[in-house]
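User: Round two. Same drill as before: sequence, then structure, for each protein.

Assistant: Same drill it is. First protein:
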Amino acid sequence: MKKYVIGVDIGGTKVATGIISIRDGKLKKKVVLPTHAKDGFEGSLEQVYESIGKVLQMSGTGKEHIEGIGVCAPGPLNPVKGIVHNPPNLPGWNEVPLASLIRKKFRIKTRLENDANAAGMAEVIWGAARGYKHVLYVTVSTGIGTAIIINGKVFHGKNGMAGEGGHMTINYDDKYGKCNCGNIGCIEALASGPYTIKRLRRKLEKNPGLKTNLIDMVDGRLNDLTMIVLSDAADEGDRLALETIAEEGRLIGIWLGSMINVLDPEIIVIGGGVSLMGDVLFKEIRKTIPTHSINIFADKTPVVQARLKRDVGIFGAASVLLKPSEIAALEKGKKRQK
């Protein structure tokens, strides 16, 4: 009987791998290694292999008890064919048949999924979207990613590349809104963490007399401004910090109003580091959505913070191996625990 699944979360800086019990959804063992992305494809792939080997060794679990290996990685990728195309933060990963390579290495069934899609499914199974079938999951951090979940399943589209909601344009003539994807005015180029800080830095450079503690917090070095510094200043009641977070919330709310027009989800779950900004951000998002949506129920759509902050990538990657019956069993188990 297969008792466990392995989840592998590949990012630009780290590879996090864990083994999860199918019966109760608990993380048994975890390994985190640096990705070594600067070493190119071969160096970082070796880190993936090493992390899987280590978690198997540490857990003492034989391959005969493993249902499979789920892998999540940044897109663009094709989850059906198991191919990673050309993610910007993984140099040299061009048309890599990742699922096939891992399958051959360990002789264990392997599936690949986009990292945002995987995190979204993890929230459906274990997190804030449990009990919902039609879900929009959003991650806001260094970029903005989305997962579209319909009837409890990720919607992949024709080529497996659906759900790139972070690259929807909301301001096509913003000269400062040049996105890493090459387009102008994507929501990612306007409301992700790095772009929010760039906008704040420009404001401070143009208006050196603004009353704010932010400048003192970085000893006058504006290049040292980060979302963490911004959050700390907001916690202290700094007016400019609060205004900056509220502005980000308005941008996200404008975008989500359009997403509701298209998808009419039961719930929107927001994760990623920026989601930790808290009430100021979420209040502005919820206030803005109805003013930019034709959906008469837009103001009734719950917009909530993701519940799985730690290890969401591992759980998300593992989720692609779970059968519907296993997901249902986990949900029943959670209800019994309540």
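Second protein:
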Amino acid sequence: MRVSLVWAALLFIPVVGCRAAPDEPVRLLTIATGGTAGAYYPLGGALARLYTDAIPGVTASAQATVASVFNVQAVEQRKVDVAFTQGDVAYLAYTSGTQTIPRPHANLRGMAVLYVNTVQIVARADGAIRRVRDLRGRRVGVGAPGSGTEVAARIIIEAHGLNYGDVKADFLSFAEVAAQLQDRTLDAGFLVASYPVAALTDAATTVGVRLLPIDRDASARIREEYPFFKPVVIPTGTYRGLDRDLTTLGVDNLLVCRADLPDALVYRLTRVFFESLGELGNAHAAARTVDPKQGRSTPIPLHPGAARYYRELELGK
């Protein structure tokens, strides 16, 4: 992905909480989140405060970033300690790398499966686009460069027999996709997020939108090659004009970390995360859907510290 690691542009969320005793070294822990309008940012800020308050010797801070691809690269380069990312991005980075760092990201380890992001492909209701193949030659919002949305958009477009270059890809945020659909300056857009997306709800009410299905054969090809994708159904009535259930694909969000973090530290980080889901749910509703029993099923290897937490969870400790 075309991502430049210009760290001076990052936004920091300061965290104040308990500190280590004077003779105890303080460990500064950095959490990479996402854009300020998404779920990663408020969850990361809340998690940083919880870590600082709950773990002696740890002072955590959260950084706003351009999200998934950027975050795994930052973990690989040891510029951050913990990060939010989509499962597809983590899997591809771990196995083969990213466009910017085209080698396997061996320093990447899983901590937890979080909640599902759903692929929502949307076009104007008054347009001629009714399926993914109709996107050829059209102006399509594909998410920010280096985002999980762009990764998913590329995979889905190519699974339908198109080349990524067959569409006029425009790197737009969810809000920009919705606004430009309403202005009729955009033909279609990809949104990979928990539904309903507020900006899409607004567009469905004003200009009218059509959600595009993923072809059954394309879905099978995608899931065979990329097993981290899973079937998701968007229920009837989720958006105005959606008059039947829509089958699409989803991908898990993950919490990941550096492989070289101490096992005892990652164990505490994982435990505090799951024991604080109620408080995290106050920061963003997506945390309320996290299932601890699914936490260990990351598409990349678990950090041994996280694995210890899941073993204890199974034993009922």
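The chain has two domains: 7-116+252-315, 128-250.

User: Perfect.
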